[in-house]
Amino acid sequence: MPDHSFDDFVHAALPALGRYAYALTGERAAGEDLIQDTLVKVAGAWRRVHRDGSPLAYARTTMLNTYLSAWRIRRRRPASVPLEDDWPGPDAYGPVDVRDQLRRALDALPRAQRAVLVLGFLDDLSDEEIALMLDRRPATVRSLRHRGLAALRRQLDGDQVEGGPYARR
Amino acid sequence: MHDVERLLREELNRRSELPAPSAAAVVTAVHGLRHRRRVTAVAALCAVTVLATLAGTISALRPSASAPPAVPSPPPVGEVWLTLPPDVRFADADHGFALARSCSANLCQLYLAASADGGATWQRHPVPGETFPEEQRAGQVHLRVLGATKVALDAFDGTRRRFTADGGRTWTSPRVEPQGTVAEIPDGGLAEVRSNTGRPIDIVVLRPDGTSALLATPPLTKPLTSMWTNVLRGDDGSAWVYGGDDTRTWLWVSRDRGRTWRDVPLPGDAAGPGAGQGPHLEYGRIVYVVETFPKRRVWRSTDDGAHWADISRDLPPDPGGDAGLGAVVCFDGTLLVYEPMTGAVYRAMPSEARLGRVGDAPLWQRAGGRYLRGAGPKGSDGPYEHSPDGLTWTPLTL
Prior knowledge:
The complex is a heterodimer of chains A (169) and B (398).
Chain A: H1 5-25, H2 28-44, H3 46-52, H4 55-68, H5 70-76, H6 98-108, H7 111-122, H8 127-134, H9 138-158
Helix pairs in contact in A: 1-2, 1-4, 2-4, 6-9, 7-9, 8-9
Chain B: H1 4-16, H2 23-61, E1 71-72, E2 81-82, E3 88-90, E4 96-104, E5 107-115, E6 123-133, E7 141-145, E8 151-155, E9 161-164, E10 170-171, E11 181-182, E12 190-196, E13 199-206, E14 212-215, E15 226-227, E16 232-233, E17 239-244, E18 249-254, E19 262-263, E20 287-291, E21 297-301, E22 309-310, E23 326-329, E24 335-339, E25 344-348, E26 356-360, E27 365-367, E28 370-374, E29 384-387, E30 394-395
Parallel strand pairs in B: 11-14
Antiparallel strand pairs in B: 1-10, 2-4, 3-4, 4-5, 5-6, 7-8, 8-9, 12-13, 13-14, 15-17, 16-17, 17-18, 18-19, 20-21, 21-22, 23-24, 24-25, 25-26, 27-28, 28-29, 29-30
């Protein structure tokens, strides 16, 4: 009799995995690729994972490891570049939206910093929980979060246009 | 000051609220992918067994039997357009390649357009087996030009490679996975960085015959979390690896085809984590670093980073730090810098100690052996033109 437990797991876990994948990658297509890569790995170890009884936790950790292993996804998707790397054009006066700045800054963060921010700010996980998932020390997690936030803050505050809607107060 | 934590929480919540993909489609895709991998593994095992058994006889009868049979490109059908954004690269001033497409009924066939006359005329060859939905606008492959007639197209997902040694007339499908090691990056070869979680990087060499191997002596790095995927080749044959971790950024150079590597000290803030737009290495013997934040500075080194000269004294300041700068290194080592707020172009020839203003013009990009520019309202918009010298421009028309 065919085992449908993996298919059932995908149906049940997809919203949770999708939430993480989109938050990590920041775009739909890359997120779906990440989900698929993750599930292929989970499927390969399904008997053991199913027997151990925590497939969603296993899938989440697999997704983080897949995401942190930059090789495949970097090759698949062109990297988001800061504004100054774009081809220059005469209309460089366009309005700059803070959300767009945050998105670019977030996408430019090193993957480990981004993963820590996602786990901390999306699911409010503690440093110890994040450290366990990423196989790092809690102090490293704190350092990664601090550096990530500092980089975002620097980028956002540095990108404010004097007198514009996002001017310094 | 922004409330970064609140903005970040909002942004992550927005991202995570995207609707999940169809579970049925994901299940089908996962099973399909696993099935294909199993079939491929079994087929490869069978092939290895058969080859091992018959190798002696086959090599005696057909010395070239190890090369996979080349599939001829089918005749072109319908109108062929450049893929967008354009993926164009010239092996030299005469020989160039561009990815193109021809679409009907929402399905596009990928083409390789090849020119042997400096981009004046192009021959278009369909790439067997490479189709994609029309809304993608481009095939899911990297264009990797190895020489005047040799091109590899590597799938973004790393699962397949199409290779031509005759400008696109016939195609083979060599294995993508590296086989064995090589002592150096061969003449006519290319190389890519492969990151390894928690371990130093590897260098994967693409040989001129379309096969891959690991470089025996990659630079000894920390585990990198961000990097340039390509090992950049300077015009003088030097090879460069650029990347960093959460603490800093490094640049390595090899001047013996990858046998030995040296750490190149970076100037100013360029050695910090996630630093700027990266160095400009195209010329090889001269390295430029263009910094735009917190201060505009342009550095030049002619001794692999032992000394850096600040050549940016005449650049207008950018107090906000948000205007950016464009830059391109010309074939003679001259640096052109584009100031987007005024449209002004600044130039520093190798013999000049600093950048000086030379005019107002849109800047171009290097596309291998030629320059490429968009002639549309923005510098990145079509129609596109290419040039061997930045003076005379030829429309890129397939």
